[in-house]
Amino acid sequence: MRFEGTAHRYGRDVDTDVIIPARYLNTSDPAELASHCMEDLDPTFVEKVQPGDIIVAQENFGCGSSREHAPIAIKESGVSVVIAKSFARIFYRNAINTGLPIMESPEAAEAILDGERVAVDADEGTITDLTTGAVFHAQPFPPFIKRIVEKGGLIESVREQVGK
Amino acid sequence: MPRPMTITEKTLAAHAGLDEVTPGQLIECSVDIVLANDITAPIAIREFARIGVDRVFDPEAIALVPDHYVPNKDIKSAEQAKIIRDFAREQGITHFYEVGCMGIEHALLPEQGVVGPGDLIIGADSHTCTYGALAAFATGVGSTDAAVGMAVGTAWFKVPASIRFQLTGELQPWVSGKDIILHVIGMIGVDGALYQAMEFTGDTIGGLGMDDRFTICNMAIEAGGKSGIIGFDETTRAYVEGRTEREWTRYASDEDADYARTVEIDASAIEPTVAFPHLPSNTRPVREARDVTVDQVVIGSCTNGRIEDLRIAAEVLRGRHVDPRVRLIVIPATQAIWTQAMHEGLFDVFVDAGAAVSTPTCGPCLGGHMGVLAAGERAVATTNRNFVGRMGHTGSEVYLASPAVAAATAVAGRIALPDDLD
User: Fold this and answer.
1) Distances (CA, A) of A59 to A107, A110, B196
2) Which of B30, B256, B267, B394 fits as disulfide partner to B204, beta carbons 3.0 to 4.6 Å?
3) Could you say which of A17, A144, A154 has the minimum Cβ distance to residue B387?
4) What is the ipTM of this complex?
5) pLDDT tens column, A136-160
6) Smallest CA–CA separation between A35 and chain B, in Å?
7) Mean pLDDT across chain B
8) pTM over 0.90
9) CATH second-level architecture of B7-265?
10) How many CA atoms lie within 13 A of B157 on its CB side?
């Protein structure tokens, strides 16, 4: 999987209440959720995000609630991959289970600046800052998790097992 | 002989059908209970339909609790709640709790004996870690995990390393489980236990009642923890005997088990504590917070809406009146707690003090309904999160505290200890 897009850079402890505020959780419609993505942290995000864009954040991205609405809103907004120093654990599994690519790379998260163009090769685990030319390496997924991601999410993976 | 293991590792190994597990190992476990609520269940039900099975794996192993926007706050919420109700009826789900018998999920399931010691529980709600207080492994997951759990009764896990928090010493007056866990989160930060299990031990923990233990394990997630857990003892036994509907299993940590680290805490030095906006780790002693004035106080939630919490709040409020600039909202966490509080006369105390008493709901904790804040408003709440906009407008503020501090604050109009009141 390869992605290329503009980086939207955020800080540490980006919580699920700012990714998708609870006042919008009376729906589970992906498009409606996406229209409020990151609203309480960056009200301009929805207007500026383009298909393929990349969120770059620091430690503990996605902390707080278990709401899958958070990765759903991010994915539906057009974001291709989230790069962070670390992810909160429920967000981490929700992203894997729903097929939102995520990469842990402290170096890339530190170096990539807001607005820079970034290319990602998820199979190789490389992140290239196209503005500066710097190349970073992300932690690869363990094989067990890679299988889920390759199937396109947990449902697809389990559907195959159930069908056997 | 398997390697020495922690209670968490033993519980996971047993549910994976393995003699032993090691931190970092990826395993597939059978689950005893799968939980979802009115926010997470609609997505779980949608995903369930894509898996290709007609029936849930076991209608007695699934708990569906509409509690966040219930009683329905608007038409959209009503539609969400209806999805769950229809699914529960169609699938014959035994643990479905309708308005009138419902409660906040993490107070309700232990109270109703749905979860017990040695269980492995996944819940599509981050505060599922609460049940660790019963010496169970319980962790928050997303809707997709819940969907798969409902369909096939399994979940995948990376075995977490454990951090041992050893608390010794006698607690100061007005210091509760809430102050202990806020103190711990303040020490290690909101990602201080990321991907790890938090095991609480020591004579201080042994001396706590179940309600304080639930409060402590409830907020493990606020330190990034995968789970919080307290070992089985006589207090656990007294709570679950005659209550828990399935047989329980008692696992205990081996003395020579490996921990990622051990944090020793002199609990006698813990003061009544408040978490300032906008992170639960932003803690300060109440004595440094007395100049903070408030507009609203909320006593309730999965963290502090149990009977002991309400008794403490009533003890502080008895014969006193809420400051005229403050709105006090009291929310018993379940119908049984509500009824007990009523029979004990606690409602007379609350209402005489000028409080509003609500039917059980998560409501204001997440800025849903029943006490949403306007721009510039400030609340002290016994809830668990104080992120930007958590209880309403992004320009509002939430301070987290114990029921004793919350009740005293409602009377004083500013953050206070019960001893500060006349």
Assistant:
1) 12, 10, 16
2) B267
3) A17
4) 0.93
5) 999 777 888 888 888 888 999 999 8
6) 17
7) 97
8) yes
9) 2-Layer Sandwich (3.30)
10) 33
